[in-house]
Structure to design on (502 residues):
């Protein structure tokens, strides 16, 4: 049967329309290509293996992962609608949490945690990263005690590693314990991407204080902050000097810290405590000695105890000078004064890889980056720091990889040396084997790895969520005659700390 005849004029019109539609689709797809977007580069070498160097990872991040010119908008709430926005957000979060509670019987403890990442103005984020990137080779920039500031920034760069993972496309992320949400009403927690350590060390003093005040206002103006008083907000302040001028105004937030410093030199009473805050490890300053390296260096570990660092420190670090006096000159003991630069790094790395035990005494604060250098070097830490709190201790058992010695015992003549010599070889081998397995928990990387420190952050945070919600809701319903503090207080033998965050 012959087909129905289509007039030639109509056929041409139909063909023209189809061609026009095809070109339109191609143009639309081409316009979305990153090669056509002037604010982005296409990454020619996507990261397939984890990068653990802060400098290398940051260079890659700034070159391929973020806009050349920031397009981030300021999310600050309008002061006119402030109260209405807070109430609106609170109602939305109530509905979301109610639905999740009904749909998921294990809510609110289950994974993944839902984290909202604030899109702060670039002066608080990208501009500071570029500042570091453009100046880190200036090795003459040192602190008053001679420490290169860029080395300190690297050791405390936890804010970069967490943020870079959170904002990465989900297709590139490996962690399943946390997801970024783009609606505040869906969030369990709120992340504040403020680079407090970079700003402290690389900006002029007054410029830094001004930036801190501006960041404080920006954050505390947010409806989500006002709703909870900041209790569900995460603030990275990993260097004890960072954000110091204004942090009393954000003490209800979850601080990411290197330790608690119960001496009171760096944090005021009531500002930090384990129930609220989270301790994160320093970024190691030496290369990892993996299982293969440990096997190769085992027979070469002829040094019994190694220490390299500042021999005199302030406050809680006074035990160092006593230990040096007690141990210097003893057989099998190597104690060196630390030096800056690549030479100092190489000397520390070589010394740790030749030693069975590495001394880890308190410094200006109870913790030290040296502890984590020892762990990734396969050198069993000997911790002499009575007030030390450790990262992820709700998950990791440090007794399997470290020795804990009281400062009173350690400074007694001959005590520490005799103690180390009394440890059985089988126990040493077992601890070295455990170090090889534990090292992964202290290696920040891009992309962040399962069971790496970024992952353990969110596993620890999950344990805080219910308590955060408790204090948030309690603060929202109390009346003026109510007790101002909860009865659940965290007490320290030397300090009385009001542990309530209501």
């Amino acid at each position: 049967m012959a087909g129905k005849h289509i007039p030639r004029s109509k056929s041409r019109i139909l063909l023209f329309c189809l061609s026009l539609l095809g070109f339109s689709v191609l143009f639309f797809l081409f316009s979305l290509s990153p090669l056509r977007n002037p604010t982005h580069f296409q990454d020619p070498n996507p990261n397939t293996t984890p990068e653990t160097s802060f400098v290398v990872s940051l260079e890659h991040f700034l070159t391929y992962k973020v806009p050349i010119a920031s397009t981030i908008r300021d999310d600050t709430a309008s002061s006119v609608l402030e109260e209405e926005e807070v109430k609106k957000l609170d109602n939305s979060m109530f509905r979301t949490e109610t639905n999740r509670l009904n749909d998921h019987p294990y809510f609110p403890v289950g994974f993944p945690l839902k984290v909202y990442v604030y899109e702060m103005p670039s002066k608080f984020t990208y501009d500071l990263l570029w500042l570091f990137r453009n100046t880190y080779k200036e090795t003459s920039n040192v602190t008053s005690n001679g420490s290169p500031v860029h080395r300190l920034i690297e050791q405390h760069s936890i804010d970069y590693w967490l943020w870079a993972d959170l904002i990465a496309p989900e297709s590139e992320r490996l962690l399943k314990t946390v997801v970024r949400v783009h609606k505040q009403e869906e969030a369990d927690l709120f992340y504040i991407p403020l680079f407090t350590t970079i700003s402290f060390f690389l900006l002029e003093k007054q410029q830094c204080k001004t930036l801190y005040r501006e960041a404080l206002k920006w954050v505390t103006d947010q409806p989500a902050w006002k709703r909870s008083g900041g209790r569900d907000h995460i603030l990275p302040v990993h260097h004890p000097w960072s954000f110091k001028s204004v942090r009393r105004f954000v003490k209800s937030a979850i601080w990411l810290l290197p330790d608690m410093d119960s001496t009171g030199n760096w944090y005021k009473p009531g500002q930090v405590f384990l129930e609220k805050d989270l301790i994160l490890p320093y970024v190691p300053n030496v290369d990892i000695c993996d299982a293969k390296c440990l096997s190769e260096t085992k027979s070469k570990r002829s040094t019994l105890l190694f220490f390299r660092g500042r021999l005199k420190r302030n406050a809680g670090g006074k035990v160092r000078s006593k230990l040096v006096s007690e141990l210097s000159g003893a057989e099998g003991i190597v104690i060196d004064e630390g030096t800056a630069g690549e030479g100092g790094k190489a000397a520390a790395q070589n010394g740790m890889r030749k030693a069975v035990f590495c001394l880890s005494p308190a410094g200006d604060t109870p913790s030290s980056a040296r502890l984590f250098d020892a762990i990734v070097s396969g050198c069993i830490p000997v911790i002499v720091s009575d007030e030390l709190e450790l990262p992820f201790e709700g998950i990791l058992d440090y007794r399997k990889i470290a020795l804990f010695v009281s400062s009173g015992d350690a400074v007694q003549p001959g005590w520490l040396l005799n103690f180390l010599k009394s440890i059985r070889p089988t126990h040493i081998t077992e601890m070295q084997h455990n170090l090889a397995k534990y090292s992964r928990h202290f290696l920040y990387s891009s992309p962040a790895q399962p069971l790496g420190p970024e992952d353990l952050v969110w596993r620890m945070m999950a344990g805080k969520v219910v308590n955060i919600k408790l204090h948030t809701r309690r603060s929202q319903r109390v009346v003026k005659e109510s007790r101002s503090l909860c009865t659940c207080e965290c007490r320290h033998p030397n300090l009385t700390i009001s542990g309530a965050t209501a």
Notes: Residues 25-44, 68-76, 487-502 have pLDDT under 50 and may be disordered. Residues 8-32 form the longest helix (25 residues). The domain at 291-442 is CATH 3.40.50.2000 (Rossmann fold). The chain is about 40% helix and 10% strand.
